[in-house]
Amino acid sequence: MSSTKSLKWLVATFISVISVYPVAAKTQEGSKGIESSEVLERPKAAAGSTARIAKPRRRVTYRSAKPFSKRPPAAGTEFAKLGVTIWRLQKAEGSKGMEQQGEEAKLEQVESSQELSVGSAVRIGVESLGHDGFLYVVDREQFADGTYGAPLLIFPTKKTREGNNHVRAHQLVLIPRPPSYFKITESTTGKKQTAEVLTMILSPTPLELPVPLGDKAITLSDSLFKSWENRWSAPVNTLEMEGGAGQTVSVKTQIQGAKSLDQEGAEPPQLTDDDPLPQTVYRLAIKPGTPMLVTVPLHFQSAPAAKRKP
Questions:
Q1: What tens digit of pLDDT does each residue of 248-276 get?
Q2: Cis peptide leading into 268, omega within 30 of 0?
């Protein structure tokens, strides 16, 4: 995967937001999905504020791929939620491409399970639904034989906010920083790549890194990364917005209207109930005061099977 200016993923500057908003679950034990009364709540917009959406938002519900229980978390744990939206760049007429970056270009919202074809350009939005903390994002290539490439810490870097990776709940993070995109490219290792896997960590305290931050991504040791996974991984419920896939937003609108950490200067405002909701919500139970770790795979589209000659 790479940015538009280079064919490598680590060129992209990463900004992410993690917000954890309360989710009122009304599911029955053992049932799949979430009932229509399920909502995601954000702070109310201030009186007289201008909404970013031109028309009233439709009722939004989320479904779970696995049985979803309304039970509270086990004793000594709390629910944490991370909202993620994957946008795929497309031309006005619907064909995908990188060359259209003007007003006509649109970003199409896709589900987390959507397979992305080689050459696709994507941007990712991350929103925390409750916890403040220090955000870290690690990128790894995943191969058909089940192995992974070296873990790269792609956020934070000095190119974004001088390395300041402290984020508050209900703030938006665009990945990479506009106007860049990630481009899905085949691995240069010679091995068949099946996905680009992002591991997002929100820690209440800064993590100890092997070297000081610079302008480029840091290559982490496998042992360090696995120690993070072993300590903080937890079962995750993945909730998808019903009817969200296929919605589009113009590139210009997203850049001009984004309440994101990309904006320099004043503290970025929090998202409110006027703002679009994330496509995917990752829900997990963690011990209070410990980091939240979420894995977000970007699956590659399988090449069509070759046709046999008669």
A1: 888 877 776 666 665 554 556 778 777 88
A2: no
